[in-house]
Amino acid sequence: MAKRIIPVALALVVCAALAGSVHAQDYYKGKTIHFNVGLSAGGGFDVYTRLIGRHFSKHVPGSPSIVVDNVTGAGGLVLANQFYNSAKPDGLTIATYPGPIILRHVLGYKGVLLDGRKLRWLVALTPAAQACALSKASGIKSAEEWLASKRPIKLGGLAPGDDTVDLPKIVKATTNLPIQIVEGFKGVANVRLAVESGEVDGACFNWYGMKGTWQNRIDSGDVRVVLQNLLEPHQDLKAVPLVTKFAKNEEAAQLLQSGLKAYAVPMYVYTAPPGTPNERLETLRKAFMTTLRDPAFIEESQKAKLDVEPIDGAKLTNIFASLYEIPAKLVGQLSEIVVPQK
Questions:
Q1: Which of 22, 24, 243, 339 is the most exposed place for a label (fewest CB within 10 A)?
Q2: Crossing angle (nearest 10°) for helices 44-56 and 207-220
Q3: pLDDT in tens, 32-67
């Protein structure tokens, strides 16, 4: 009897899986999936998403059409808020914006109208890996020269709460590196243009995006990577010093390390709205992971120098949930540094 039960059980599992696949195909066939990008065209989020969009459809049952739109403002927060509160949980709308936006909610930023524990996380393309790059025109060739500078080095950033602003604020508070943060850029692409025009001296943002969108300037020497805002060196940047080397004192070092750890959340994250049914959530998660392993996608990403180290949706969900467990004392310390007091 037991020998007959096992094949029957397996058959039921297979039938359920096939039924789910057929249902997903029926659902997505003839429809359009909209990817909403929270930052400006030409930046890392935009470039990565358009690359994914060229391969994503064939990995979704029913091969729906794919449309990519940019919804900019406040370093991705405009999209994040709209998406969380208004997007239909129908599996047809996906958002991407900086992962540290969830940390804004934890730290008590005003105007953050979302909860990272309720979003339906799909995938992250890369872990956190912020580097600081300065222009040749700045006259600064290394972190040591930056430390000795008689003037503050202007770093372009997006908005308070974005890691391009918050991490430099933490670095400024815990080291003697002279820093002036210039906020208000719509996206990292705009920051890069400001560096190239001499409006600012440099910027600190995700190394994966930097390598993919600014490699020609780095190779030419017009831009130099001089600092890593990381606890451990990235494999590409072993000759570039870690920011922890420049902490003012032991107390500052501990706060800096805690801040770096708190902001070490994945950068290029993709999510479905709260309430998205599990069946569609799993369909989209599977489509992402299959796309990122697709030889055609890999070939194109390598040509574009866009590295991908994916973090699946289940693990990403746990990562964001853990942010809400940061000790209250550390939340208070970081909030004093990064959250605008106006």
A1: 22
A2: 110
A3: 999 999 999 999 999 999 999 999 999 999 999 999
188-199 pLDDT, tens digit each: 999 999 999 999
196-216 exposure pattern, b = at least 16 Cβ within 10 A, e = fewer: eeeebbbbbbbbbbbbbbbee
In degrees, rounded to 5, the angle at the alpha carbon of residue 172 between the alpha carbons of residues 168 and 175 is 125
The pair of structure tokens assigned to 222 is 């017009």
Question: In this structure, are 252 and 104 located in the same domain?
Answer: no
Length of the chain: 342
Could you give the CA distance from residue 317 to residue 171 in angstroms, rounded to a whole number? 28
**Whether 105 contacts 112, CB under 8 Å:** yes
How many domains does the chain divide into?
2
Backbone angles phi, psi at 205, to 5 degrees: -155, 180
Cα–Cα dist 128/143, whole Å: 20
Range of the domain at 241: 130-262
pTM of this prediction? 0.87
CA 10 to chain centre: 40
What CATH number has the domain bearing residue 19? 3.40.190.150
